[in-house]
Amino acid sequence: MSVMEKKPAEKNPLDKDAGAWRRRMIVFIPLIAFLALAALFVLRLGAGDPSRIPSALIGHPAPRTELPPLAGLTHEGKPVPGLDSADFKGQVTVLNVWASWCVPCRDEAPLLMTLAADPRVRVVGINYKDRPDNARRFLGRYGNPFAANGTDDNGRAAIEWGVYGVPETFVIGRDGRIAYKLIGPVTPDNLDTALKPAIEQALANP
Q1: If both were cysteines, with which of 4, 12, 25, 51 could 184 make a disulfide (CB 3.0 to 4.6 Å apart)?
Q2: In a domain, 2, yes or no
Q3: Structurally, how many domains does the chain consist of?
Q4: Are 75 and 164 part of one and the same domain?
Q5: Are residues 37 and 64 in the same domain?
Q6: Could you tell me if 36 and 135 lie in one domain?
């Protein structure tokens, strides 16, 4: 071998191990990020009642909403009108987003009937992605608390209201602004501890 020739440099085994470690870390980074996000979600979920998650719309005017009525729905022989947010002004309104296929909606139905019996408030509904015949049967079976009810066939209105899923209930003040949002069904507990106090507070404001 010529003195000018050199043997190929031998690779350091430590460099090989470091490269393999880096490749493994690249593979595991998405998994680590996913686990971190999952842990954050669980932590936030356990931090309190999810039904009390604040809405970005609270304190803001209710979204401009004009929805057609539920075809064939009547109350005391008169057609129940669709939903028009212009009617919120001047009265306290409880708006419930519901559907006949929503199981929790069945449980909260008697409590909505109780609220509708209060002459100081007006209970209205948004029927979300439902079939008219199913919606009418639902109200015929569980009672119709709605002075007005709009049909949201494509779910666009629910998006504008920031709805996470049905059921959800809003309290709108006389000024047409959203005063409170309840995520999930109305229950005997949150009716007394959250929804009724929010209604009373809205009634106390001009």
Answers
A1: 51
A2: no
A3: 2
A4: yes
A5: no
A6: no
